Amino acid sequence: MRAMNRALISLTLAASLSAGCQSPGDTHEELRFDRESSAEQLVRFMAMEGNWRIVGGDESQGASHNYKTIANGTVVVETAFPGQPHEMITVFHLDGPKLVMTHYCAAGNQPYMVAEHPSGDRVHFRFERASDMVHPDAPHMRDASYHFIDRDRVNTTWQYWEDGAKVSEMNIELERVPE
């Protein structure tokens, strides 16, 4: 709880410090996005600190996901499939009034997604752009959603796109690994 309070204080401080750091022309974005709501959702990701596994997966394999808060309580790093050849990292943080994520994918590109009006127990990230894509129709993760069931269970859904269309959707139910 103390770490959670520290994280919330860090986010509040970051919000007040960056309030004057908006780029010219960002007034439209300020109307669409609410930094306070975005910060509250980032705290949900911070609360995931620790090891998680896929429900129904092989428990002997240990954690399939790890969450860690870094950068003085302003960034959450998700490591999926740690130590495996297809290990991936997703980084969650605030960007002005927005909650954003960058997914460092095993496909070799880095989709950048923005949370659409995050509130309640669900956060949906929509694709905005990606780095290191050979062409716009290259395979990539397009959208991602997180549904926070309770403190120890989270459902995630990821859409995989290629040639301008959704190819597949992965639904992953995660549960916290008991310490």
Structure overview:
The chain is of the alpha+beta class and 179 residues long. The protein is 20% helix and 45% strand. It has a 10-stranded antiparallel beta barrel with strand order 1-2-3-4-5-6-7-8-9-10. A hairpin with a 5-residue loop joins strand 5 and strand 6.
What is the CATH homology-level superfamily? Calycin beta-barrel core domain
Q: What is the molecular shape?
A: globular
Tell me the fraction of residues in β-strands, as a range: over 45%
Question: How many independent structural domains?
Answer: 1
What is the total tally of β strands? Answer: 10
Provide mean pLDDT, rounded: 83
CATH topology: Lipocalin
CA radius of gyration is 16 Å
The CATH architecture assignment turns out to be Beta Barrel
Distinctive features:
Lipocalin, 179 residues, alpha+beta, single chain, disordered N terminus
Summarize the structure.
The protein has 179 residues and is α+β, with helices and mostly antiparallel strands. The protein contains 3 helices and 10 strands; from the N terminus they run H-H-H-E-E-E-E-E-E-E-E-E-E.
Give the helices and strands, then pairings:
Layout: H1 2-18, H2 27-32, H3 35-46, E1 50-54, E2 65-70, E3 75-80, E4 88-95, E5 98-104, E6 110-115, E7 122-131, E8 140-150, E9 153-162, E10 165-176
Antiparallel strand pairs: 1-2, 1-10, 2-3, 3-4, 4-5, 5-6, 6-7, 7-8, 8-9, 9-10
